[in-house]
Design brief:
Chain lengths: ~110, ~110
């Protein structure tokens, strides 16, 4: 079975540009999570969807960040405009059930904002 | 609100045991444990729910002390493959989820 799929795997962009990260969760999973990982801040939960509905977005840094889940098999995380401090690895994870269920992580997208 | 893990880093020889602790300032509902190898995504190890005290996974087990708002991960007879960074993830009773500060574990021959 395919695991969580993220694209692109690497993204290099210039400050001010719009960045869109994509995630396809494991089929049948109904919870989806976006995380950001940096050396300074470690792993941070950005947003959590359950049944395509955002349940907890308290970790979204600011208005420049937005996330959508139009259907059960696709989610996007958008940064507009991007800034150098957004450089990080962004992980998407999915699970069957609610937040206490096992989370399966995608390979991550390494974002570099110049 | 981020749980604090200790130690920050540990180096072991193959066959030695280690304990990694995770402490929260808030009452916990569940604790997850993950291992992440360099350049890879975190991989789930186990979850402990409120009311469940201990779980095991091969030579890796964990305990959850609700009263102390703490969890500990026990690695016995460590193997080279155990090397990586271990994270606890805690969901508190306010439905907030945070990963811990991480513990770097290095197993040497």
């Amino acid at each position: 079975d395919a695991g969580v799929i993220q694209s692109p795997r690497h993204e290099v962009t210039e400050m001010g540009q719009e960045v869109t990260l994509r995630c396809k969760p494991i089929s049948g999973h109904n919870s989806l999570f976006w995380y950001r990982q940096t050396m300074m801040r470690g792993l941070e939960l950005l947003i959590y969807f359950n049944n395509n509905v955002p349940i907890d977005d308290s970790g979204m840094p600011e208005d420049r960040f937005s996330a959508k889940m139009p259907n059960a098999s696709f989610s996007t995380l958008k940064i507009q405009p991007s800034e150098p401090r957004d450089s990080a690895v962004y992980f998407c994870a999915s699970s069957m059930g609610s937040r206490e269920a096992t989370q399966y992580f995608g390979p991550g997208t390494r974002l570099t904002v110049l | 609100q981020q749980p604090v893990q200790s130690p920050q880093a540990v180096i072991l020889r193959e066959g030695e045991d280690a304990v990694i602790n995770c402490s929260s300032s808030k009452a916990l509902y569940s604790v997850h444990w993950y291992r992440q190898k360099h350049g890879e995504a975190p991989v789930f190890l186990m979850i402990l729910l409120k009311g469940g005290e201990q779980k095991g996974h091969e030579k890796i087990s964990a305990s959850f002390n609700e009263k102390k708002q703490q969890s500990s991960l026990y690695l016995t007879a460590s193997q080279l493959s155990y090397s990586g960074t271990y994270f606890c993830g805690t969901e508190n009773t306010g439905n907030q989820f945070y990963f811990g500060t991480g513990t770097s574990l290095t197993v040497i021959p």
